[in-house]
Amino acid sequence: MVDRLYFAHLPTPIEELPRLTELLGGPRLLVKRDDQTGLAFGGNKTRKLEFLVAEAQAQGAKMLISAGAIQSNHCRQTAAAAARFGFECTLVLTGDMPVQPSANLLLDRMFGVEIVHVSDRADRERVLNETFENATKAGKKPYLVPYGGSSPVGALGYAFAIAELVKQNVNADWIVFGTSSGGTHAGLMLGKRVFGYGGKVLGVSIDESETWLKSHVSTLASDASELIGERIEFTPDDVLATDAYCQAGYGVLTDAEREAVKLFARYEGLLLDPVYTGRAAAGLIDLIRNGFFQEDETALFWHTGGQPALFADKYSSLL
Questions:
Q1: For 275, how many CA atoms within 13 A lie in the half-sphere containing its CB?
Q2: What's the pLDDT tens digit per position in 146-205?
Q3: Do domains 14-44+150-318 and 45-149 have the same CATH topology?
Q4: Where are the chain's structural domains?
Q5: Which of 66, 72, 151, 218 is catalytic?
Q6: What angle, rounded to 10 degrees, do the helices at 277-289 and 255-268 form?
Q7: Cα separation of 5 and 90, whole Å?
Q8: pLDDT tens digit string along 188-239?
């Protein structure tokens, strides 16, 4: 059996979105509140970290090392998990470093991590590997938390999230969510197969091509399946994804994200973030307007968190 720690606030609630449903003319809309998983303002990475931190402990690690953008939600939750379970933590972050830290970066600092700044994203992988090698040589016993928590071990967090969803007895025809590094996507696919969930799982790409997602997610789901039973061979054709909404680039705010964040806030009192859930919701809204769903269907929007990014200076133009 795979090691797991239990620190997320689960199960996360499922709520109706009646005013948005009425505004958009169907389908019936629900939201799964994984912004309420509890760790450092919550988010989807908490589910993955229950498995990843358990693996780090089992390996005798003393330090967590990971990487992401300056306003990475994954890095914020990794830093919080390190603080909670007594690990040192180093984060390799890319992007423009602000004079004063805000939002996720401010929280990283509060958790006491060491930050290695890399200006060019193309250099991040090299610097991450160097950071890990140097920590190993120094005897710090590091554990490399994969980008986005997206490894076969991390993906298990969302396989078991489907088991949770089944127990909540909610029958949605579609699950719609933001996908990027692929771990959430792969876990949902695996959980759908293992736990017999009948709905379709559609990932709205935040920054990757549909071709890459189909290949990567199917491989990741296949590899993750071996950790809980016999291998299940997923193919790219099994993966539902769209890259129609990410052409502006990662973290680039467009009118579509602005509208989505405003609609969820003003019609349901629900806060999204500008990078992930804002873009995924923008895709959901556009798909509804273009008749992708049947009016009598139910679509569940899986809220993966990220709201601290709302307070980053770079997104002050959100309104």
A1: 23
A2: 999 999 999 999 999 999 999 999 999 999 999 999 999 999 999 999 999 999 999 999
A3: yes
A4: 14-44+150-318, 45-149
A5: 72
A6: 90
A7: 21
A8: 999 999 999 999 999 999 999 999 999 999 999 999 999 999 999 999 999 9
50-68 pLDDT, tens digit per residue, is 999 999 999 999 999 999 9
pTM (predicted TM-score): 0.96
Residues in the chain: 319
Active site residue 215: no
Cα atoms in the 13 Å half-sphere on the side-chain side of 117:
10
φ and ψ of 228, to 5 deg? -125, 5
Q: Which of these CATH numbers, 3.20.20.70, 2.60.120.10, 3.40.50.1100, 3.10.350.10, describes 14-44+150-318?
A: 3.40.50.1100
**How many alpha carbons lie under 13 Å from residue 66 in its C-beta half-sphere?**
32
Whether the pLDDT of residue 1 is over 80: the answer is no
The whole-angstrom separation of Cα 279 and Cα 86 is: 35
In whole angstroms, what is the distance from residue 12 CA to residue 161 CA?
9
